[in-house]
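Q: For a teaching session next week I want to show students how multiple molecules come together into a single three-dimensional assembly. I've collected the sequence lines for a complex. Could you give me the predicted structure tokens for the whole thing so I can convert them for display?
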Amino acid sequence: MDPGNLALQYFLSGITKGSIYAVVAIGFNLIYSATGVLNFAQGEFVMLGGMVAVTLAQFVPLPVAVAGAILAVAVVGCLLELLFFRKLRHHSILHLIIITIGLSIVIQEAALHLWDEKVRSLPYFTGNEISSVRVFGAAISPQVLWVLGAVGVSVAGLHVFLRYTLKGRAMRACSSNPEAAMLAGINISNMRTLAFGLSAGLGALAGCVISPITMTHYEMGGGLAIKGFAAAILGGLGNPMAAVVGGLLVGVLEAASVRYLPAAYNDVSAFAMLLLVVFVRPHGLFGAPAGAQVREH
Amino acid sequence: MNLMRRIPPLLPFLLCAGVMVSLQQLMRATGTQYCLTQLTMSLYYAIVVMGLCLLMGHAGQVSLGHGAFFAIGGYTSAVLTTHNFSAWGHSSLGGWLQQGRVLIAKEDVFGNAILTVSPWAAFLAAMLLTTLVALLIGYPALRLRGHYLAMATLGFGLIVSKLLVGSTLTGAADGINGVPPWPLAGSLTVTGKTAARVQNYYIACALVLLLLLLLRNLLRSRIGRALQAIHDRETAANAMGINTAAYKLKVFLLSAWLAALAGVFFTHFTGGIGPSEAGAFKSVRYVALAAAGGMANLWGVTVVSTALNYASLRGWFGSLDNAVFGILLIVIITLAPQGPLKPLGAWLRRILGLRNLSEERLERS
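A: Of course. Below is the structure for the complete assembly, covering every listed component.
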């Protein structure tokens, strides 16, 4: 294989992973915009999505299992908001963030005891482990196309939802000015529940489509949360679409460091680049400094 | 106000020392002195959390990378005191260093003569390296706010832990073993030997108490009030003429020192250190412990982090350890966001009819 194709191969694998980080980062952003909280349990939604779908797939056809998993995890997300964040709204933001860390540990342990420590995966949506599609000379699994397609469609759908529907516009109103939104008759609490449900459902979808490639494991959430957080920060917090760019960048950087550096250092260059970007642009690539400052107080 | 009875300033320290001594006596009476080892380790971990209490609770800056400073301290000590520098022995620099007792000659387990750095010199080197790294990462990072700072420190921690796993000098995934004891002064030695268990417990206790006293004094000084102002509203503090950038850097450096100090003591005490000490999970755990202890409450974070770490080091909850930690975290923050010691202290004070002037000052949302 010539070097150009090899580079393309790594690039595509970076894009695949990056699109999952992008979904996690979008989840971060949705909840951050609605509540000001960074939800570190975001990675657990991805894990739960994969786990539930694998279990359901033993009894029902794959598409139903995936849909069921998305629904179930979205319900879990809504429940978290109803049980914890609605009650604790008067706690400081930092306390709420620590609570999400606590929740992520608890969800992980619950998954360990509900399922077990085994690695599991969904079957390939089309084809199998060895089937491949050639794209510009690089061989990729059809599942990669599923990942990119699913992420692309859901990102586009989210964009349309946020920009053109009444509910979506109400949600954006809540994030830009909660008091004014309340005066306009928007039920802020329900919007927050919706934001949790949406980002949990999105996470679950990502967990399903990526499961055949990277497998599903009860511990996978922590790493995804860190990468997704990095992606959200890189893009600039509060902007779900910038998170997509952030996620793809983190994925490609990671793939490049696998290509050019010893395996032991695989994350070093990705995070070093991230630090550099954040130091040069303290509010992310597309973040607005003024908005971020107002939110903090 | 002046007429009200106040808690004598040294009373909490005497009380704490009393508890520490009675714990040891209790363990001696019940023949469970082996538990002192884990208690000593928890005390060292508590020092890291004390630093975070200063950084998060008082200056309002979040760091998800303090496990890395702990590891930098511990690893510098471990590498310097175990690495064989005999190649330097014949050079004039080596001879000079040997005369200054920086390099000391001894025998390894196989009876070969080796030349290693003395623990005190290694300690100084560890603190120096920590200072350098903390300034290097702190200077740009502290221009960031809130979540961006959290991300930057998290990334820094991850890089350090990957470098430790990837480098053969630091023993890759195995870490470093066989770190020699650290003779502090006279017969006081930081070591994990069974005979010195009680002595080491008291060394850790004394260190914690001393640091608590120093930090409390620091917080009640001009610096403490400036940090408070930064925590409450940075822009306003700036307008008041507080050099917020310099203060933030200083308190970051101080908390990094505390973490590295804990790392050095811990490494000499346990005789080794592994790369998991720098892991993201450890750093997140320190932050969580600080939050559970009440964030700005120095006593609270010390007690809570010692107790929780002790419980998990003793394996009280078995395989449910992480789950219990997560649940405790949620319960404590839900029910007592100021830390469990705060309501307890208020209740005690009401019973005793005492008033504490700092109470209003420490009150915060």
